[in-house]
Write a structure and sequence with these properties.
The protein is built from eleven helices and eleven strands. It is α+β, with helices and mostly antiparallel strands. The strands form three sheets. It has a six-stranded antiparallel sheet with strand order 1-2-3-4-6-5, with helices on one face. A hairpin with a 2-residue loop joins strand 10 and strand 11. Helix 3 packs antiparallel against helix 7 and helix 3 crosses helix 11. The protein starts with a strand and ends in a 5-residue tail after the last strand.
Amino acid sequence: MIGQAISHYKILEKLGEGGMGVVYKAKDTALDRDVALKFLPTQLTASEEDRTRFVREAKAASSLDHPNICTVYEAGQTSEGQMFIAMAYYAGSSLKQVIEKGRMSGEEALNIGIQIAEALKAADAKRIVHRDVKPGNVIITAEGVAKLVDFGLASQAEWTKLTRSQSRLGTAAYMAPEQCTGEGADHRSDLWSLGVVLYQMLTGKLPFRGDHEPALMYSIVNEEPLPIQELLPEISPELEHVISRLLEKDPEDRYQSAAEVLGELKRLVHKSGRTQTHARTSVRSYGLRAWRRKWVVILSSIVSVGVTAVLAFMILSRDTGLGLASYKYTPFATGDTIAVGKWSPDGKS
């Protein structure tokens, strides 16, 4: 398709491919801007009902105007009947590519987690469920902004239409238990997926694994994940609690809204910031105390020398009858501290 024109879009290059379609970078010749075009597999939009649902979902996604959500421009259809969706193009990498380079720091994971939660909160407000939150659907821009893409494009019906040859394991790993058992998804299913993403960002591993799809789904529905503390001993108990609650099997036991999760994650960042500030303050306080101790020693030595000098002068004056003008004071130093001095008529003896 490279070089072809679809509507007012000219295909420039292929960006990626997955079970939910192929994505190309294209030029919007009408507005002279780069866009991302996603073409859905033909089996997902084979019937008129499927196409109608696709357009309805695309319209709902286009209503989401948020910094952490990919902007949807339009949904269209090629002359051959293949459905596509035009979205904003962002230079950067997918979160999947970032994770493949190695596990992320707690600060980095919290930062991305908060941005995904912000996106889900905005979707909650419009009663829109993503259904497929995973690292491959999060773009990290060159400026470090997380953009959640593909809102509403995955449904249980579409999931069953995908063939195993298209490898559903990449998506199944992030599915909530209720999705695995066919009970459907709601906003709490997206929160489960966020928990899986947080777990993977921090440890570099998935909480549930299986060599094939049935084994993976069995693990999600019936088994407990390996405690994250065993993989990451330094994790804070608070963050471990947040992830554990996100991964509760029963949706009723999870957080009930993205806003609630967002509040917890922001509180952890705020607490971490206070701890670092306290540590810096402690270092400064220690340095100030050390500086004070040093000058107390120096000043005490000077006072001691002065007192010694006055006493020596009084004794010498009494014994010899010589006045202050007849004597010279010679100080002696030890290191950086004046230790003692001596008065004598010639300043030497």
